[in-house]
């Protein structure tokens, strides 16, 4: 969970001198689905995929989200209106790398409509907004900021080989005691499955995350 101290009493009608609902974000897509990964897998959630990414993992399955200029800028009010109308209780802000954007207007508006706000991030940029759940997925080629770690509810590390397990342990040392630690096999690297199974059996403080939405053929 994260809520910047100076923003806690922010008037939702005066963020950045504007009404939050008029502020625009580059949006690749938004849709109501089932969370397929991590601690909240299996729960209904409204996904808000913002465009722009400075990490650009080679295994990324949404590379079209990288270039912010390819996508329309959509008013916060329109995004939040669709999320609220879906009936979802959870909104997941993802990307791309969503922390490239100031999330205060979007998260304020979502919470005003009664949604819990989750974020999926590499932690490569500072946290912003009001976040009920922070999922960190740290990448070796663009390391997360140390200031992000105190707020991490869940850390999910994509694993291809042994050095990714070493990377996972290095980052786990920076996480709070309550953080859920998860290892996730890279979808196109079958050998990573056995590697993770053996590792978790020997290190039971870790759990396994699977991309269940791909098995179910849902977005």
Summarize the structure.
By secondary structure, this protein is of the alpha/beta class. It has helices spanning 76-85, 104-112, 162-172, 191-202, 212-216; strands spanning 2-3, 24-34, 44-50, 73-75, 90-94, 116-121, 130-131, 133-136, 154-159, 180-185, 206-208.
Which key terms come to mind for this protein?
219 residues; alpha/beta; TIM Barrel; nine-stranded mixed β-sheet; two-stranded antiparallel sheet; 5 helices; 11 strands; globular
Name the average pLDDT. 91
- Binned, the helix content reads 10-25%
How much of the sequence lies in strands comes to: 25-35%
Spell the H/E element sequence. EEEEHEHEEEEHEHEH
- How is the CATH topology named? TIM Barrel
- Largest beta sheet, briefly? 9 strands, mixed
CATH class: Alpha Beta
Specify Rg, calculated over alpha carbons. 17 Å
Number of strands: 11
Structural class: alpha/beta
Description:
- The chain is an alpha/beta fold and 219 residues long.
- It has a single domain (2-216), classed as Aldolase class I (TIM Barrel, Alpha-Beta Barrel), CATH 3.20.20.70.
- It has helices at 76-85, 104-112, 162-172, 191-202, 212-216, and strands spanning 2-3, 24-34, 44-50, 73-75, 90-94, 116-121, 130-131, 133-136, 154-159, 180-185, 206-208.
- The strands form two sheets. It has a nine-stranded mixed beta sheet.
- It is globular.
């Amino acid at each position: 969970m994260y809520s910047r101290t100076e923003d806690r009493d922010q008037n939702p009608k005066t963020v950045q001198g504007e009404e939050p609902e008029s502020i625009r974000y580059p949006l690749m897509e938004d849709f109501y689905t089932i969370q397929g990964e991590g601690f909240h897998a299996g729960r209904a959630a409204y996904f808000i995929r913002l465009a722009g990414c400075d990490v650009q993992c080679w295994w990324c399955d949404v590379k079209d989200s990288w270039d912010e200029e390819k996508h329309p800028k959509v008013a916060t009010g329109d995004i939040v209106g669709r999320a609220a109308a879906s009936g979802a209780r959870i909104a997941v802000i993802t990307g791309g790398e969503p922390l490239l954007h100031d999330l205060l207007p979007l998260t304020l508006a979502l919470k005003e409509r009664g949604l819990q706000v989750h974020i999926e991030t590499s932690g490569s940029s500072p946290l912003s907004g009001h976040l009920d759940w922070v999922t960190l997925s740290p990448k070796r080629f663009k390391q997360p900021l140390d200031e992000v770690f105190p707020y991490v509810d869940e850390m999910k590390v994509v694993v291809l080989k042994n050095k990714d397990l070493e990377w996972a342990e290095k980052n786990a040392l920076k996480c709070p005691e309550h953080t859920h630690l998860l290892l996730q096999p890279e979808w196109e690297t079958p050998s990573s499955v056995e590697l993770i199974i053996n590792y978790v059996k020997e290190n039971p403080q870790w759990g396994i995350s699977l991309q269940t939405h791909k098995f179910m053929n849902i977005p």
